[in-house]
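Recap quiz, item 2
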Amino acid sequence: MARALINVPPTAKPGAIIEIKTLISHPMESGYRVGLNGQIIPRDIITTFVCTYNGEEIFRAELSPAIAANPFLSFFTRATVSGTIAFRWTGDNGFSVSESAEIVVE
Amino acid sequence: MTQDLSRRRFLIAGIASVAMVRPAGATPEAMREAIHKLVGTAVVRPGRVKLVVPPLVENGNTVSVSVSVDSPMTAADHVTAIHLFNEKNPQPYVIGVALGPRAGRAALSTRIKLADTQTVIAIARMSDGSLWSDSADVIVTIAACVEDVH
């Protein structure tokens, strides 16, 4: 199970623009490196990241092998109502991790 | 004379082997092709996008990149996508993100790998279909992606 760190402000004023930061442990093996046995190390990357706010998709990223190991992403959204911000990373070899954070808007 | 020739042959062989060792990477042409595949015949204008990459990086394995786009992010006028390309990694495409008016601010930060000293380009697509871009030159002292594992 890959470890994911997410940073969402716990509270926000209605309409405020908040920054969301995410970091997940993953080697992001590019598929271009040569291993000890002289063979190419097969590609193993996260390909998609999706963030939803109370079920509504607010941000999506398609990642390539050029993203550094332990992918870090930071982006913004507008706090509208209290609820759950959910994150999902999917990738090669059936990789799939979900995380979520609660936000109180008042 | 014969010695001269063999030396020349040796030199040519040396150059050829260096050329062979270098892995097939993307080229500025490959990047242009990848951009063309994304935008088609539409015109990409410079401006409105701000791409921030350190001008000199020691380690190409982790390079902080941030892109911000000048946009009011309203339902009528917002950024729908931001794409990042590079010239000399094995693949020209780096990341593509989809966002909407809900984002409030069109900005993105991440960390990427760079295989060589090269130019990085960010392209933003607006809700009216117009395309804007910014580019940055990066000098990389230790390359990523292509090193062997020892």
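The first strand of chain A starts at residue 4 and ends at 7.
Chain A has one domain: 4-105.
End of item.
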